[in-house]
Each structure stands twice: as C-alpha cells, then as structure tokens.
Fold each of these.
Amino acid sequence: MTSSDRFDSYERLRFERREHGVLLMTLSNPGKLNATDGTMHAELARVFRDIDADPSVRVVVVTGEGKAFSAGGDLDWIGRQINDHAQTMFVMKEAGDIVRTMIDCEKPIVSAINGVAVGAGLAVALMADISIIDEAARFTDGHIRLGVAAGDHAVAIWPLLCGMAKAKYYLMTADFIDGREAERIGLVSKAVPADEVLADALAIAERLALGPQDATRLTKKALNHWLRQALPAFEASLAYEMLNFLGPDSAEGHTALLEKRSPNFDGLTGG
C-alpha cells in the first residue's frame, strides 16, 4: 500500500507502508543509479524527522531502486559547489543534518544495500542501525577520489564499526570494498546473496516492529551516545571537506570524474 500524507511531497524518495508499522523507503533517481542530486540531498536531510514524527511508523527500511543503492553524488550538482562559498555552506548544513537526524531518530533504521553505494547514499546505508548488504556489492567512501576530506559520515562511525586501522586505510585510499569484506571487518551487519537483501531487511524490520518498542528505541538511544561522542570529530571532518571544495583539488577531481580519467593532484596543494 502506498503511503500518503507527510511523505507525498518527496520527489527522490518513494514510500510504501507495510504491515506492523514497517515503512519501506526507496532512493529513486531513475537513469542515474540513484545518484544524490540537490533534491535527494535536501530530502535526506529532513526525512528522518518526518519518520520520527509519524506515530504509525515503527521501523524504516531504506533501499535503492533497481540494481544500485546510490552511486554517489550527481556530478552536475557537485560541480555547482566547487569554489562557491554559499553553496558549500548550504550543502554542509544538509550533510550534517542527514547524520544528526539519523542518530536522533528514535525509530530503528534498517538499510538494504542492494548495489553500489557511494557518497551521501553510503552515509545513509552505514548510519543505519542494522545494515544488510549484497555480498557482491561494492562501495567506497570516495571523497579522496574527488580531492576532498572524508566528511559525510565516515569519521563519526567507521572507527566504531571496523576500527581505526581499517578506517584510515579505506578512507585515505578510497579503495572499494565488497559486501563480504565489509561484513568481515564489521562495517555492515550482514552480507547475503543479492536476491535475499531486501527480504532479509524486511524480515528484520518486522521482527523489530513486533518487539517491545520502548525497549528497542531506548537501546538504540543509549548505543547512539557513542556516536554523539564522535560528533565533534564529525563536525571537523565536514568542515574540512567543505574547505577542500573551495580549493583546486576538488576542481581537478571533479574534472577527472567527468572525463573518466585518473586525477592529477600532484603539485596542486600541500607541500
């Protein structure tokens, strides 16, 4: 059954109400592998407040339309941020809101990572309370490839999930990780075959929805104090990322992505 009311205004997020208070939320940017554009980014920054405020929702499952979860930021949208202070400040607030509202949302969030996940989409995938991934899916934080610091979510949660050594390696190299390795190092809850991802996530969501709501929500709230302690580091990383958008590396990284070549950061900044 398609949901109505507060979720009707969303363009890049589709909603389906299922039994027992489970809400299925699907990232949708057709033809672009659900890449995050300005509209989706703005909607992700407010949707978890709407979910939290809806008394009929007990658990939310987040997945991507088709064969991708979310293939990073839309390059046209990213390009508008480079060397634009006002746009950078605007995006910084939204990016911070995505992470903070997911931490503060009382309802459990389950991600069904059905394919490639990069950028803000990856933030939603890994900030979820429980994450189920296609064992063959590949993802990367990707910020370094663009020439900006890892800011969206990773500094807050990756060290908690997989430890500092692995977090530093993957965030500083932007190497891709597949679902099996992500489960092995603790970045996700479970890795399963592709055709089981959504079904498994929905089954877990139903189990949570039928469980004791106060106890489940308060357990999440208590555990998320670990993440709240990491918010100063997260805020710093977000500010550093946005600072990089005002420098030459991001312009070169963006151009390289558009031209589908390796970036040449040699000599642009640093020393």
Note: The mean pLDDT is 95.
Amino acid sequence: MNSSNTPPEMTAHRHRLAPIFAYLMTLTAAFVAAQCFIWLQIPLPWLTGPLLCIGILSVLNTPVVSIVMVRNLAQWAMGSALGLYFTPEILAIISQLWWCVALTVLVAIALGLFSTQFITFLNRNNTGFSSRQQLVATAYYAGAIGAASEMTLLAERQQARTDLVAASHSLRLMIVTLCIPFAVTLIETSSAGSSTTLAPLPLQAFQPLGFALFALITAAGIGVLHYFKMPNPWFLGPFFASVILAVLECNLSAMPPGSSSAAQLIIGVSLGVRFSSEFLKSAPFWAFSIALLSLCLIAISAGFGWLLSQFVPVDFASLLLATAPGGIVEMAITAKIFALSVPVVTAFQVTRLVAVLLLSNWVYRCIYREAPAPESTSAKR
C-alpha cells in the first residue's frame, strides 16, 4: 500500500487483465463465495463470503479489482434502505437513549487511547519509524475508531505513516465484519428472548415511479454532503435524506428486491481488495498487533454493550453492533439481516463517527503532542 490519499481499493492497472474483465471475474468469484457461505449456513453470507474470498485472492496477488463508482452505488443503496427505518415512533424512543449515545462516544475515545498504548508497546522495537513521535502518531490514528480515509488524512498532517494507518483500519474492519456476525448468532441462539421494542418495522412494497422520485431525493442528499465535504457522503447523504422522508411519513417506495444482497456483495468486494501481500510482508508484526487489538476491542465492546443492555430496553445483540469497532455500513447491514434494531445501531455508529472525526485531532494535540525542547524554552528567555 502506498501512502497517498487515494481510495484503498486496488486499481485495474496493477494487473494485465482489462478492468471490466477483471471486475467481472471478481464479481463471479464473490458470487460463488456467497453461495458457498449460504450453503454452509454462515452468518451474513452475501457480505462475509465475498469479503473473505476476495481478501484471500488479493493477498495472493490474483487480479481482483473494485470499481469505486459501483461501490458508491452500493453504499447509496444501503444508506437509502436503512434510513427508511427511522419512523417518528422510533426516533422518539432513540431520543430517550441520548445518554447511551454520549457514553458510547466517550468509550470510543477511551478505546482509541487504549489502542494507541497497545500498538505503541507492541511495536516499541519497530525500526520502521523515523522517531518515537511518528510511532505514537501512527499508532494513534491507526487505533482510532473512525473511518479509514478520514483517519488517514488526519494522520498525514501529523507526519504519521499513512500506509500503516490505512492498512490497519482495513484489517480491523475485516476482522470485525467477519467475527461480529458469529457473535450475534451466538447471542441470539443463547438468549431466552430479546427486546423487540426497536425492531425494524415492515416497509411498503417496491413502487417503480415512487422509487424514481426517492432515488432523486437521496441523490440530492449525496450532493449536499459532497458540497459541505462531510465524511462518507455516498452512505450518509442518502441515509439522512431517507430519514427525513421516513420522519415525514412520505412513503414513496421500498428498495428494489435483491438490492440489499447485491449491495452487500459489492461492499464485501471493496473491503476484500484492500489487502495486499506487500503489507503482510513489510509489516508482519504490525499486522499481528492490529489483529490482536481488534479482538480485544470486540471483547471490550461486547462487555460494554451487555452493560448497557441492563439499563435500556434494547437487546444485547443490537447494542453489540451499536458499540462494535466496525464501520457504519457493515454493522447496519448485520443488524438488518438479523432483524435487530437497525435505527439504534445506525444512530450510535453515525454519532460516534462524527464525534471521533471532530475530536480526534484535539485529543491528539492535548495528550500526545511533543513538548517543546528545553533548549528552545531557554532561548526565548
């Protein structure tokens, strides 16, 4: 991986195959993997199957690719679909959980600080950094629970190794996306019964004309977030537009049949192609420390989610997804497939993402910014 700010997907010019042909091969492999996972009854097969399959092929330097625009359309589909769950009744219930959302933000920041110390300690003898300050900066932005692209941009401003930051977020997201569905399955199987207070409500059927207007409105949401340079506009733009329609009870149409499965497959592909053999060869111990950290974060999030479930009328599985150190899209998809509290999961994840992006630089400057050298202080005198 390079240290540029381009999206982490592999591009077609790295392979001799024509881009379209390589992409069709990638989609075929992903579809076969999804069918195998369905046959094996593995949780979330349309996402986890392509993710694992394409990830392995990518590490083996197989010509697998992801087209950014197709991935963006998949994020649009998921954001539009998930926003429809936010009815006025659901929002009224979520508003009562404001203290849980605020506590989740504080825990996320604390976990970021814990991650920094964890990564720094395990890589204290790593000679791939120009200074200890660069190691700390890289560890801080690699361990922050935020979006990969935004954390990479912030890391560049602090002279951190952006290649490791981007790769770390990709690896953590892959581990969380693969592990969490199994954890949710275990919770759902072992629990005597879960709260359905915030379970998804039935949506109306697909209407072609209504969907055309719905698509235009959600596309406008993308444009607005792009204009204000907000993070993840292809998901959050349609999501916020769809939430407004749901709150106003403007039921234009549901998403087309099969769109959810197709979007999951495409998102799984876009996650899988982020991995390369170069990263594993050049920084094997760093990759190991991120993998170990990811498992620790999942365990801590599970404990925090269980604690919250003792005080609020939301099931443990939903709160696990709401507090998990994964991406908004992946955790919301998991909640949707398992018929859990999609609004709670999405609201928690969106609020945490925005808060971490706004606060991460300030927290870094307050805690980890290198103090001025004594010589410079005496010189001023």
Note: The radius of gyration is 21 Å.
